[in-house]
Amino acid sequence: MASYMAFTDCSTSAPTRTFLFSRFRPRRGLPSIPPHLLQGLPVAGFRLPSLRITNSPSSFPKAAISTEASAMVIDGKSIAKEIRHEITTEISRMKDEIGVIPGLAVILVGDRKDSATYVRNKKKACESVGVKSYEVCLPEDSTEEEVLKFISGFNDDPEVHGILVQLPLPSHMNEQNILNAVSIEKDVDGFHPLNIGRLAMRGREPLFVPCTPKGCIELLHRCDIDIKGKQAVVIGRSNIVGMPAALLLLREDATVSIVHSRTKNPEEITSQADIIISAVGQPNMVRGSWIKPGAVIIDVGINPVEDATSPRGYRLVGDVCYEEACKIASAVTPVPGGVGPMTIAMLLSNTLSSAKRMHNFQ
Ligand SMILES: Nc1nc(=O)c2c([nH]1)NC[C@@H]1CN(c3ccc(C(=O)N[C@@H](CCC(=O)O)C(=O)O)cc3)C=[N+]21
């Protein structure tokens, strides 16, 4: 337990090159070129780090970083932008062909500053792609019934294709009752037990997959990182990230372990992973020694740490000690600019799919 929680500060000052993997996505018909084969090729103004092919018994990772190794930074912000662009195109096509505009309703209860920021960002993102957003802000001391009344109104509103209740809710509310009330056809967060249940079952399809885990997998796909047959470790077992991330990796044919606060040897287990998804909310918990050389790291943590030199008085760091990870991993997501922007892109994507499904629009 102690070793799990122990972390030391590992400030993020390492200069790293930002690299948009998605540029390498093969266009139709072209074979996929694994990044490790692109050794030394100058691409889009960047050179890939020099990679050494090892004789690792597992086929992954083939590339271990040599000398002053520097992992490729998975640019979630650019990839999310590319996805928003694709969504914008689809939304205008739908509007032109059937006159439907996807709508997303967001319910915010209370005055947590971080929640207000997230909701503001979601609204901005909706505007940027042409999703119509409906926002309800209720005071902290609202009753559960009041929230349920708004959910029921949005459930019945044909212009609303997605409903999101910003979490966490005030402690006097029963989160389960509230999440259960969202119609599964509009559950763009994918938090309804029926959607999670289907996600957990082979041969069943959820209507929606939770946005953050979906964003993690989308990053791997868009970076041409194979998941099938790989050892994946998810750190954290929350309903909204860890658990669904593990289920998604399993659906992608990874061999999945979940490391959590009662795991006896988290470092030993994590250091065997080809892919690590960390979602615990402990700054710098995952140290270099937890990382197998060449592993791919998706860092979901967004942790404020004090920083007098920053204008806000704090800065955001992930769960993973970024500068150590950069020396050992083959690819790593930064915080901010990694998974966060993908979460919002996936929310827009789920809202678009919902509108398409409701109107039978392909
Ligand atoms: N029902 C519900 N659904 C959610 O999806 C949900 C939620 N409740 N409650 C809170 C968490 C958190 N979350 C984030 C979304 C985007 C960023 C994001 O875009 N972050 C940026 C900027 C961070 C900054 O600078 O403040 C980044 O990482 O680069 C972060 C966090 C969604 N959540």
How would you describe this protein?
Helix content is 35%, strand content 17%. It is built from eleven helices and 16 strands. It has two domains: 35-79 and 213-340, 3-Layer(aba) Sandwich (Rossmann fold), CATH 3.40.50.720; 98-209 and 344-358, Rossmann fold (3-Layer(aba) Sandwich), CATH 3.40.50. With 362 residues, it is of the alpha/beta class. Helix 2 runs parallel beside helix 11. Strand 2 (42-43) and strand 3 form a beta hairpin. Bound molecules: 5,10-Methenyltetrahydrofolate. Residues 118, 121, 164-167, 189, 211, 302, 316, 335-337, 340-341, 343-344 line the site of 5,10-Methenyltetrahydrofolate.
Provide key terms for this protein.
362 residues, Rossmann fold, 2 domains, 11 helices, 16 strands, 35% helix, globular, disordered N terminus, binds 5,10-Methenyltetrahydrofolate, THF_DH/CycHdrlase, Aminoacid_DH-like_N_sf, hydrolase, NAD(P)-bd_dom_sf, oxidoreductase
Give the secondary structure arrangement, pairings included.
Elements (H helix, E strand, L loop, with lengths): L1 H4 L12 E2 L22 E2 L2 E2 L3 E3 L9 E3 L6 E3 L1 H23 L4 E7 L3 H17 L2 E7 L5 H13 L5 E4 L9 H7 L11 H8 L10 H12 L8 E5 L6 H10 L3 E5 L6 H5 L4 E4 L17 E4 L3 E4 L7 E4 L4 H7 L2 E2 L6 H20 L4
Parallel strand pairs: 1-6, 6-16, 7-8, 7-9, 10-11, 10-12, 12-13, 13-16
Antiparallel strand pairs: 2-3, 4-5, 14-15
Helix pairs in contact: 2-11, 7-8, 7-11
Bound molecules: 5,10-Methenyltetrahydrofolate (GUE).
5,10-Methenyltetrahydrofolate binds next to helix 3, strand 9 and helix 11.
